Write the structure tokens for this entry.
Amino acid sequence: MASSITRAQIRIIAYDGIWFRDGHYGNHLFMSPENFQSRIYWPKESKYQVVPLARALDGPKTRDNVPYETVITIDDGWYDPNKYMVPPLENESLPVTIDVYTGAVDSQIAIPKS
């Protein structure tokens, strides 16, 4: 019922990244490549249509209002998401927006990988 009430609203699925260790981040904010891979198939099997962020932001006056529009984003633009998350999305022809941590770009100081 809730999904039909909000069918004209845009949904955003925000992923944080990939995690290979046990611990807090692995259990809450990040996931294994296998877990991510298992999640990318549901949009094609559901009523939710994944669209590019730019299309979602065009607004209802400039585009057809497609019910259940969904945007996928990945935070920070780290190496691991680009290696493990972007290729499966591309293989499924699902658009994704990668947010870049501009503090690191602006400072040009390397962030050590822990």
